[in-house]
Prior knowledge:
With 377 residues, the protein is an alpha/beta fold.
Amino acid sequence: MDDRLSKSAGKQETAKKIRPTLVELLRVARLGNLDETAEHIEKAISEVDRAVGDANNASGVAQKLNLEIRPEQLQDIFGSAIQRAVPSNDVEWDKRAKQLSTKVNKKAQWWRKLFRSGDVDRVRDVYEKKWTPEAALARFTKQAGDLDPIVWGDKRYFGYSSGIKRVHLFVLMRIIETLRPARVLEVGSGMGLNLLILAAQFPDIKFTGIELTSAGNEIAQTFRASPKLPDQLAAFSPLPIVDDQAHRAVSFFQGSAAQLPFEKNSFDLVYSILALEQMEAIRDEVFGQIAAVCSGHVAMFEPFGDWNMSPMRQHLIASRKFFAAKIADLPRYGFEPVFASEDMPSKLSFGVGVVVARRVLQTSGEKHAMTLVDAGR
Ligand SMILES: C[S@@+](CC[C@H](N)C(=O)[O-])C[C@H]1O[C@@H](n2cnc3c(N)ncnc32)[C@H](O)[C@@H]1O
């Protein structure tokens, strides 16, 4: 081994050894409300993670799906929601990062009580109030809401989270182009806006959504009734609309993902965008249901643990009882990961990427890939 390699291997070993001690110190500092100390320890842990190369565990997934996404395309789509790129040692950034970390630490106990069990009734209560026509328009406006600190690889930005949302939609469009499903289900479809835009992009595909709240579904149905895809949704689409009337064919169901009202193998692709994050308390049931109705692939834009190694992100996810699965958990639910994004823009406080996984049947201890339209891809 050359000298540089052995030095870096030694550094990684040391970093791995000291991480558990730092995590324990952080726990004690938080318990004692020693905010400044906690903040320094968090920084040290992030440095250790970088040294170990663990800042993003998703990089270990074999990439079997060629999505042909050029970084310039993502940059283009993301660009319209960016106020400014942030250089290192930016005072405003450091201030916001510190505020965020303090907010997460301060609110953690309150969140723990509020989201005590993260159960379905609690989530329904929150979203029945949240989904309003105004919220729909704000959510799908390129520049709305507060500016967020956003990280993308080693780059940092102040921007609107709509930029992240448009990147998700674009990547989902590429996934659909690659897999060519005939029947697609969104789980936790909110106000239906992703589905309406996707239908206008892929008029030959049958799109369906299932959503917990009546408020979300009512708004979805109002948009669907519009003779033409509303201009705001067309403008939000990262690709030019193909058929501005195809949104009228989307089907919306109200119900819980833990009890899907569909026949087995009804969908070639099941996807979710920041919805499984709300279903941690019922994760096993939901994955069981998705596995039953899915005959092909799943695509999940969710905060897998692999993208949330930093202490602040882990703390936020744990205290809000958000999705805590790792990509490596998917085979347990009958899914073989075939793609995981390595680098997508995310809020500083919360890492989200996409995992595509193929449904595999598990019979008497053996795994068989199911027959797919695109088998072998
Ligand atoms: C953050 S929103 C995302 C909505 C949509 N996917 C989007 O990208 O705009 C999460 C959605 O998941 C829904 N949800 C949460 N738990 C659910 C469950 N058990 N079954 C169905 N939907 C659920 C919520 O009601 C909410 O509409």
